[in-house]
Amino acid sequence: MQYQSQKVAKLYFTAAIVLFTAQILFGLVMGLQYVIGDFLFPAIPFNVARMVHTNALIVWLLMGFMGAAYYLIPEESETELYSPKLAVWLFWIFFVAAIATVLGYLLVPYASLAKWTGNDILETMGREFLEQPLPTKLGIVIVALGFLFNIVMTVLKGRKTAISMVLMLGLAGLAGFFLFSFYNPGNIARDKYYWWFVVHLWVEGVWELILAAILAFVLIKVTGVDREVIDKWLYVIITLALVTGIIGTGHHFYWIGSAEFWQWWGGVFSALEPIPFFAMTVFAFNMVNRRRREHPNRVATLWAMGTGVMSFLGAGVWGFMHTLAPVNYYTHGTQVTAAHGHIAFYGAYVMVVLTMISYAMPLLRGRAANSNKAQVIEMWSFWLMTVAMVFITLFLTAAGILQVWLQRVSSTPLSYMAAQDQVALFYWLREGAGVVFLIGLMVYIVSFFCNGKEKAA
Amino acid sequence: MGGSFTTSMARNIFYGGTVFFVLLFLALTYRNEQILPTRDNRANLTEQVVAGKRIWETRNCVGCHTLLGEGAYFAPELGNVYKRRGGAAGGTEFIKAWIKAQPTGTPGRRQMPQFNLSEKELDEIAAFLKYVSEINTSNWPPNIEG
User: Fold this and answer.
1) Residue A249 domain-assigned?
2) Going by C-beta distance under 8 Å and a sequence separation of 6 or more, which residues neighbour residue A64?
3) Inter-CA distances, A352 with A23, A60, A187, Å
4) Residues contacting A224, CB < 8 A, separation 6+
5) Which residue in chain A is spatially nearest to B66 when comparing CA positions?
6) Can you tell me the distance from the alpha carbon of A171 to that of A161, in angstroms, rounded to the nearest whole number?
7) Domain count across chain A
């Protein structure tokens, strides 16, 4: 750590891990509700657990992105953060708002929550992933704007690098596209169309810029490869990401009332979306092979390579599997989608945030890298969580294919619930893999508290 | 990636490519808006349907169900539930009776909460689901089971 103000990142990273834990616990509750339908009913109905699961994920990834930015922007810009105080204030606003929102979900019936928080003034709630009450949504906008201001002011007074420009562009896009969450027309076909301007243009658009920038930063640090080489890769990757991803939005428009031309536009372009992720994998491996130093933080390098591989597998391969309209006609809205969602989010965004935390946290705690013992424990958590996620995905994919067959292809199609009963075995297996994931997360957390001989900073 | 391909070339391709595809996306969005009126059943978009959408949202129905395939995968698709449950011959009545009867309380079964909707609200949510079932979805879902 070269600049004092980078320290604020620690708050963000710590809160990210706390919310990550909450996300996984509620995920396990939902997984059990899939097979024991009345588990915790009516105290925590499935939809409530799901809001906590998905919203906690979004918030902790945003916390991770912000922490990453607060850490890497001063170092890239070679100057202290414009206002560390603002960063701390915004953190507490964001964290308190997140906790209050989760408590709101858990303790208040959703309809009452909507009424009390002014949903009648501007109706934005009750849409997947955008369930947050109006004050929370406004809070996100305020935090995002304050954060961007802080970052931009820092970059303006210091060195301007490709990494900081790409990161800022991604973060600005993140804030900008979120504004579509305030647009909710009464016409459901139009509502659904513009809803994707937040969801798709985040995860298959601007977030990829953030991902690539963070990965590039960590790779420069751990491999010592020339910045010129890394920058070129960075631009090529994000070009591929946006060229395929923007029109690729069309793969969500096949069956929601929009024009049929999307079946071609969306299909062709989204079929190319694996390419930037493949480039990311090649990038990570290539840079590590060409490394000019042996960085003592080996586990951060492992996370970086893991991000490359798993984002390609999860976002790329598992996305490609059901992106073409003739396939999607059968798989749309089944467990196949759930399988893809899990491994894509884990492989791309969870892993890149954990890469950054793995690299930065030891430095924030005053050492170049953790002790060998702590690193080995963290590596165990890497493998436990990653392998568990692969199995969660395989079991959900199996459940999904069976579901498609029983409910949509068979000559004597079953009803939704009858088909669900038939695939219960795979839900049990998925829950087992989920428990292994939780164990991996516990091991991960333990690695922070493991002492042992430290290497000097 | 060495030789004559420089970082500034890569950067320019990025900015140029992004601007081009953003504009193309906006053009396709404009075209989509022109085609939507022939597909989105807007002739039947009454105030009651919009009120029904509000019920749909404030009860977080999408937290368990899918609607035109989007949402959670814990409970049946509702985009075509009106047709699945009888259409003009009883679809509305079925939907209302079903919502009123929840939760079933069957041990081990997935449970839907009781929302205590008024008769007016039940009519609204049913009207909304009927409206959605008449949107042109390019023949999706593959069969009536959703």
Assistant:
1) no
2) A12, A13, A16, A349, A353, A356, A357
3) 17, 12, 37
4) A291, A292, A293, A295
5) A333
6) 15
7) 1
Q: What is the pLDDT of residues B58-101, one digit of tens each?
A: 999 999 999 999 999 999 999 999 999 999 999 999 999 999 99
Q: Are the C-beta atoms of residues A84 and A19 closer than 8 Å to each other?
A: no
Residues B14 and B76 in one domain: no
- Chain B contact set for A38 (CB, 8 A): 105-111
Which pLDDT band, with edges at 50, 70 and 90, does B4 fall under? confident
pLDDT score, position A454 = 55
User: Which tens digits make up the pLDDT trace of B10-67?
Assistant: 999 999 999 999 999 999 999 999 999 999 999 999 999 999 999 999 999 999 999 9
CA distance to A163, A180, A333, A420, per residue, from A411 (Å) = 54, 42, 20, 17
Which chain B residues contact residue A258 at CB under 8 A? 32, 35-36, 39
- Name chain A contacts of B124, Cβ cutoff 8 Å: none
Q: Structural domain of residue B86, as residue ranges?
A: 42-133
Among B62, B66, B78, B110, most A C-beta atoms within 10 A, so best to mutate, is B110
Looking at the partner chain, which of A48, A190, A247 has a beta carbon nearest the beta carbon of B36?
A190
Question: Both B28 and B49 in a single domain?
Answer: no
Tell if the CB–CB gap between B69 and A33 is shorter than 8 Å.
no
Range of the domain at A333: 4-213+316-449
Same domain, B51 and B111: yes
Distance separating alpha carbons of residues B8 and A162, to the nearest angstrom: 10
Buried b (16+ CB within 10 A) or exposed e, B90-107: ebbebbbeebeeebeeee
* Contacting residues of B for A36, CB less than 8 Å apart: 108
Which of B5, B13, B59 has its CB closest to that of A110? B59
Contacts of B143 in chain A (CB under 8 A): 407-408, 413
Q: What is the CATH number of the domain that holds B76?
A: 1.10.760.10
* Partner-chain contact B103 A257, CB within 8 Å: no
Q: At what angle do helices A207-223 and A351-364 cross, to 10 degrees?
A: 40
State how many domains chain B has.
Answer: 2
Give the relative orientation of helices A274-289 and A207-223 as an angle to the nearest 10 degrees.
10
Are A333 and B72 an interchain contact pair (Cβ–Cβ within 8 Å)?
no
SS3 for B75?
Answer: coil
Q: What is the mean pLDDT of residues A138-154?
A: 97
ipTM value, please give it.
Answer: 0.97
Q: Would residue B91 count as lying in a domain?
A: yes
Question: In this structure, is residue A364 part of a structural domain?
Answer: yes
The verdict on a CB contact (< 8 Å) between A231 and B142 is no
The answer to whether the Cβ–Cβ distance between A232 and B53 falls below 8 Å is no
- In a domain? residue A295: no
Q: Which residues of B fall within a CB distance of 8 Å from A110?
A: 58-60
**CA A260 – CA A250 distance, rounded (Å):** 10
Whether residue B76 sits in one domain with residue B24: no
Q: B130 is written with which tokens? A: 């009927």
B136, two tokens: 């042109």
Contact B60 A126 (CB under 8 A): yes
